[in-house]
Design goal:
By secondary structure, this protein is an alpha+beta fold. The protein has 2 domains: 199 residues, Multidrug efflux transporter AcrB transmembrane domain (Multidrug efflux transporter AcrB transmembrane fold, Up-down Bundle); 80 residues, 2-Layer Sandwich (Alpha-Beta Plaits), CATH 3.30.70. The chain is built from 10 helices and 6 strands, in the order H-E-H-E-H-E-E-H-E-H-H-E-H-H-H-H.
C-alpha cells in the first residue's frame, strides 16, 4: 500500500463505481423498491388479550403468515414494559380471509382476546411529506456546498457532494436489488449516512488543503493527494471499523423491526469509507482540471 497510488489507478475505482451504479440504477428503474406500510398504508389490528403477551410471541405467530415485519406496539404506561394485554399490530394490507386466519392462529397460540379495532389505514408518509423530505435533503446539500466552499473552496464542495450522491445511490441500489422493505427507519438511516459520508470526506480534504499550503514543486499534485489520503488512512479505517462494530451488533441482535435500518447503515458506512478514500480526492483533482501524474 505504501507505493500504491490511489489517484494514478483512478480508472480501476471509477470503473468499479460506474458498473455498480449502472446495476443499481437499472434495478431501481426496472424492479423499483419494496415500499413499506409507512409509504403504502396497511391494516391495523387493535387487540386486548386476557393474559399479557410479549412482542416476540405476537411476532412469532405473525411470522408464520409472512407478516414478521409488522409493527407491533404494546399498550402500556410503562415504556420499559415487556408485556401487555393491549397490542396494536400494523401490517401491510391483507385480505379479510387472511386476517381471520391470522386471528384464529393468534387465539390458538396466545389465548383469547377482544377485537377493539380492525381497519385499513393510509400511508403515514404521504406524497407531500416525501416532497418535504427531498427539499430538506436538497437544502442540506446546498448548505454543505456553501460551508465547504467558505471553509475550503468550491471544487472541494462539489467533490464532496458527488461522493455523497454515490453513497446514497449505493444504499438505494442494495435495497432495490434485494427488495428490502423501505420504511421510515430507512429514511433516518439514509440521513445518518449523509452525515457520516461527508465527515469522512472532509477529514481527507482538510489534509489535502494543509498539504497544498506547503506543496513543493518537486512533488506532483498526484503524489500530494496520495500522501494526504495515506496520512489519514489509519484514522479513517479505525473510525470505520469501530462504527461497524456497533452497526453489526445492531444488525445481528437488534431485532427484526430495525433490521433494515441497520443494513442501510452497514452499506452506507462501507460506501462512505470507499468514496472518501478512493474517489473523493481524485474527483477533486479532476475538478481542478489537472491530469494524474502532472
Amino acid at each position: 500500500m505504501k507505493n500504491f497510488s490511489i489517484v494514478r489507478n483512478w480508472k480501476i475505482f471509477f470503473a468499479i463505481t460506474i458498473i455498480g451504479l449502472m446495476i443499481g440504477y437499472g434495478s431501481m428503474i426496472f424492479r423499483g423498491f419494496n415500499l413499506g406500510i409507512d409509504f403504502t398504508g396497511g391494516s391495523i389490528m387493535d387487540l386486548k388479550f386476557e393474559k399479557a403477551v410479549q412482542v416476540a410471541q405476537v411476532r412469532e405467530v405473525l411470522g408464520k403468515h409472512n407478516l414478521g415485519g409488522a409493527i407491533i406496539q404494546l399498550e402500556s404506561n410503562d415504556s420499559a414494559a415487556t408485556s401487555s394485554q393491549g397490542v396494536l399490530i400494523r401490517t401491510p394490507v391483507i385480505a379479510d380471509n387472511d386476517r381471520t386466519t391470522v386471528m384464529q392462529d393468534m387465539e390458538k397460540s396466545l389465548g383469547k382476546f377482544e377485537i377493539r379495532r380492525v381497519e385499513n389505514v393510509g400511508a403515514t408518509i404521504g406524497g407531500e411529506l416525501i416532497q418535504q423530505a427531498a427539499i430538506a435533503i436538497f437544502l442540506s446539500w446546498v448548505l454543505m456546498v456553501l460551508y465547504i466552499t467558505i471553509r475550503f473552496q468550491l471544487n472541494f464542495a462539489l467533490a464532496a457532494i458527488i461522493a455523497l450522491i454515490i453513497d446514497v445511490s449505493v444504499t438505494l441500489s442494495w435495497f432495490s436489488l434485494l427488495q428490502l422493505e423501505i420504511d421510515s427507519t430507512f429514511v433516518a438511516a439514509l440521513l445518518t449516512v449523509v452525515g457520516y459520508s461527508v465527515n469522512g470526506t472532509i477529514v481527507i480534504f482538510d489534509r489535502i488543503r494543509e498539504n497544498l499550503k506547503v506543496h513543493r514543486r518537486t512533488e506532483t499534485v498526484t503524489d500530494m493527494i496520495d500522501n494526504s489520503i495515506k496520512s489519514t488512512l489509519t484514522r479513517t479505517i479505525y473510525t470505520t471499523i469501530t462504527t461497524l462494530f456497533a452497526i453489526v451488533a445492531i444488525f445481528l441482535f437488534g431485532g427484526e423491526t430495525i433490521h433494515n435500518f441497520s443494513f442501510a447503515m452497514l452499506v452506507g458506512c462501507c460506501s462512505g469509507a470507499y468514496t472518501s478514500i478512493l474517489l473523493a480526492g481524485t474527483i477533486w483533482l479532476f475538478l481542478q482540471h489537472k491530469k494524474a501524474g502532472e
